[in-house]
Amino acid sequence: MKVAIIGAGISGITACKESVACGLLPTVFEQHEGYGGNWNPKSGKTWNSIRSNISKYTFMYSDFPYSFLKQGEDFATTNDIYRYLGEYIKEFQIEKYFRFQSIVLKACYKDEKWNITYRYIKTGQEHQMKFDFLIVASGVFDRPLPYEGIIEGVDLEKFKESGGKVIHSLYYKDSEEFRGKRVLVVGNGNSGCDIVTDLIRQPNTEVYHYFRRNYWICGRYIPNGNKERVPLDWVFYSRLKQDASLKRSETEKNLATNSFFEKISPLQLDIESIRIPKDQYNTFIPLTICDGYLENLRDNKFKVERNPQALINSNQIDIIIFCNGFSCSLDFLDSDTQKRLQFQSDSYQTMILYKECIPPLDMKGLAFVGVFRGTYTTVLELQARMVTMMLSGQIPYPSQETMTTNLNAELDIRYAIPRKLFPHPDYVNFADSIARVIQCLPDFEKLKETDPELYNRLYNLPHNCSCYRLVGPHSKPKLAEMLLNQFLNDVDSRK
Ligand SMILES: Cc1cc2nc3c(=O)[nH]c(=O)nc-3n(C[C@H](O)[C@H](O)[C@H](O)COP(=O)(O)OP(=O)(O)OC[C@H]3O[C@@H](n4cnc5c(N)ncnc54)[C@H](O)[C@@H]3O)c2cc1C
Domains in the chain and their CATH numbers? Predict the structure, then answer.
């Protein structure tokens, strides 16, 4: 059975490898020359100095470690991730399934086949191929969200006419080209803060930062009790912590989380311009991960500018960089299919799907990997395993009743007030729920009795995706145990 996969990023690569593992014959269509998606150093959306904001133990596939990053080299660069993905492709011998420079223009279901129309960019010619199944892994960060009107009282056209330049973070590659300029960065998510700290490396560059609401900001390493500073995902993600959090009401969760963020980011309390008042602790306040932002702000290396209109309108800014996020596009699917998927382009929760990847049961033969916000590698890989197992008949589709319950829960997430930044912030729990469907989740109740040491490792200690290769279909218990041991030895060595 043949499967078309759209996209050769982290999601498409794992979907390809898992298709082969399930006996499917994949063809991966990628519009750019090369794999990696966002993490392709040439065509991706990351900039030269960026590092992943979660450690290599979370940003990895369950059965393949970073062979070349030494202990202590925790946060991978774009080049590291690109190399890692290349080694993965080689290890699992899947090079032959990729078709680069092949942009999918249309994917439509007719006569029980997925008809794919793609253009081979080198020749400009259009081709058609037929497949039994379609896996969409085209990512969520597609086009810049509109930014006109974000800074009230500023006419961007006038600013450009008077010599000013406006770009979106999508086009930001290196701080070098901003040397000696007066730059206003708009937005305080991960991209905005990271670009600010990148720009101030350049001599004579004046950097202003504009955003509406204060977020928590912390570095990649955070204190862990009395222990040394450790990668933040080691502290954030464990089953024990997740279960405790699930038992709390929203307000209790907000209070606990904000108090925790205050503890790991004490410097923020000393900086008036971005302090978060305690009376807001019962609300949801997003977290931005950025090294050095707070220290540089304290040392006046850049300025938080709440009213940038005067600066812009009096020609005291040369360039504005908007870091206001992306929208997702699925233009290759016809409008009727998009409607049935309840597609919304704003990239938070793009569709209403079972486990964010399986559409309603009458749309069989179609699946998605990584087309939702919060796409940690672990979840992408589990989604790829689940959809390829369902498509190939190795596990059953959910019953109509389960499907309906799940889709209704997804709709509740979409319309929740206040709106969620990530549809499934309970990352460990969400990953476990997919693993349960694949039947690769260890039985914790049983383990408590039979192997309390392993239970302690899996339940109380930081989460690591290799646990999903210990049991069940496509398990690799020896490798999984070795990878889990490697990880926990590293955790232990930092105590
Ligand atoms: C600036 C930035 C920083 C980030 N930092 C982090 C981080 O630190 N940690 C983290 O976990 N995540 C981070 N992310 C999220 C990031 O999206 C994921 O890490 C990961 O790249 C998702 O992989 P993907 O394969 O789902 O999507 P993508 O990487 O977007 O890959 C999708 C691929 O599909 C291709 N494609 C799309 N449409 C078509 C078509 N019609 N035909 C053919 N090919 C098509 C695209 O060219 C692309 O190669 C970051 C994202 C951005 C933008």
Answer: 2-142+327-438 (3.50.50.60), 156-324 (no CATH)
